[in-house]
Amino acid sequence: ANDGDVIMVDASPNSYGDIEITKKITLQGPGFFLVANGIAQEGQTTAEFGDITIKKEGVKVSSISAKRIEANNYDKVVITRCWSRTMSIYKTSGAIVRQNYIRWRLDTDYATNAQITNNIVSFFSSSDYMNGLNNSVVKYNTFIFGRAFYMSFKDCVIEYNIGTSLESNTDAEI
After folding, report:
1. Which class for 114: exposed (0-12), middle (13-18), buried (19 or more C-beta within 10 A)?
2. Statement: the pTM of the whole predicted model exceeds 0.70
3. Sign of CA dihedral 21, 93, 103, 29
């Protein structure tokens, strides 16, 4: 692949495995939750990956399913419409994380100028995964907490998010 290429991946019953992205490309899949949304395609599956490690500024990943999507230390990364157990934009600037279903955690430590919008993030297991987010926008997300959770933001716009806890007698406040 060359910088600027769009790589379209088909749905498959088998995982594409772990990949490392070292070129400024767009990785485009068919989407996820296809059957639940009444979308018929051959096989009724998605494009599934193991770990996706982004090692280039400006990479775009959209409409795939992955065990983990990591864009640590690379700026202007765009991750949209993906399903992932974990997602990380650690020490990035200008990342866009939009319309994803993140099953376990979203790591934003030391990220700046990020846009985190319209995501569903559930089942956090620790108290530090959304820590140290700076000068960013966090809007229209749903956060589902598995247990006590701590968020730390500095100079961020935080609006119209929903938070709930799976533990009884626990209120979530965002």
Report:
1. buried
2. yes
3. negative
